[in-house]
Automatic annotation (TrEMBL):
GO cellular component: plasma membrane
Official protein name in the record: ABC transporter permease
Residue intervals passing through the bilayer: 31-50, 55-73, 79-102, 109-127, 157-176, 206-227, 239-268, 280-302
Keywords for this protein: Cell membrane, Membrane, Transmembrane, Transmembrane helix
Membrane topology: Multi-pass membrane protein
Main subcellular localisation: membrane
Provenance organism: Prosthecodimorpha hirschii
Location relative to the cell: Cell membrane
GO molecular function, one term: branched-chain amino acid transmembrane transporter activity
């Protein structure tokens, strides 16, 4: 009974978290946490559920940000429609790159996604007429809630983003208990065996890949309308490395892990901001230590306690 109530309690705590402080700075950090958590959850579908390593996920994040910003500023499309369009644009690119690359297994897939991300970054950086190149786009309109108006405070924006995170987290939870989710895990563990059981491996991978890119595009749109300024750096390897850190350190293949990993990343990012580029060394050490000492992520540390409390829980398999 307690185990079933824990997710609802955690969701309630997240929803009410900004009410515990009046600090605008802390509200800003909370919004960044939720934005990165949504992005990390989307990458977790690819890394944790499909077992593929993508180095181009930040490109879909940037595509969503630019698509939403350009639509709202140049065509006057309402922000909510622009956010949906951002997901569709990122999903369309995800379908194309997934259709081409998901037939390839192993390191070649990661290299292809890295090349795709580099191409999108380069085009965005040099297409001055549309993206304004390295200068980026500023004065992006904020999210407007019908009947409320534009969201001007970080605390108000937090409630919008946390709703998206909770909705997608629940969708991931439900997915893993569905037939499609079991197909994802079967493909991750042993693709040839899954194919012999009648699972369309390519279609399953493509479905998960496109769904992940759609969510990444929406996260990018939310990011653009919150900070109101974007640059091509959103698609850089620095962001991609940060996403991998969030998923791996928190715990890939879980729902809580990427959210926890995003929290650790955002907190360290703020604490180590004064150290400039040297903070990347700390992040690299964190990733290395996590892979060596906690291969299942920080979320796995509480599982021994759960097994002591409930002997029916089976031990976690070795990586």
């Amino acid at each position: 009974m307690i185990r079933k109530a824990l997710p609802f309690a955690a969701a309630l705590v997240l929803a009410l978290l900004p009410l515990g402080t009046q600090s605008t700075y802390l509200h800003h950090v909370m919004v960044l946490w939720m934005l990165y958590a949504l992005l990390a959850l989307s990458l977790n579908v690819i890394i944790g559920y499909l077992g593929e390593l993508s180095f181009g996920h930040a490109a879909f994040f940037g595509l969503g940000a630019y698509a939403s910003a350009i639509l709202t500023m140049q065509t006057g499309v309402p922000v909510w429609l622009a956010l949906i369009a951002a997901g569709l644009v990122a999903g369309l690119f995800g379908f194309v790159i997934g259709y081409v690359s998901l037939r390839i297994v192993g390191p070649q897939f990661a290299i292809l996604t890295l090349g795709f991300g580099s191409i999108i970054y380069t085009v965005t950086n040099y297409w001055d007429d549309l993206t304004r190149g390295p200068m980026g786009i500023n004065n992006i309109p904020p999210v407007t809630v019908p009947g409320v108006g534009p969201l001007g405070e970080a605390r108000d924006y937090y409630f919008v983003v946390v709703a998206c995170v909770l909705a997608f987290a629940y969708a991931c939870h439900a997915l893993m208990r569905s037939r499609t989710g079991r197909a994802f895990l079967a493909v991750r563990e042993n693709a040839p065996l899954a194919a012999s059981l009648g699972i369309d491996v390519f279609r399953t991978k493509l479905l998960g890949f496109v769904a992940a890119t759609v969510v990444a595009g929406i996260a990018g749109g939310l990011y653009a309308h919150y900070l109101r300024v974007i640059t091509p750096e959103l698609m850089s390897l620095q962001y991609m490395a940060a996403l991998i850190i969030m998923v791996v350190v928190g715990g890939r293949g879980t729902v809580v892990g990427p959210i926890l990993g995003a929290l650790i990343y955002v907190v360290l990012l703020e604490v180590l901001r004064a150290f400039g580029p040297l903070r990347l060394i700390v992040f690299a050490a964190l990733l290395t230590g996590s892979v060596i000492f906690v291969p299942h992520g920080l979320v796995s540390l509480w599982r021994p306690w759960r097994r002591r409390a409930d002997p029916a829980i089976r031990p976690e398999p070795a990586p």
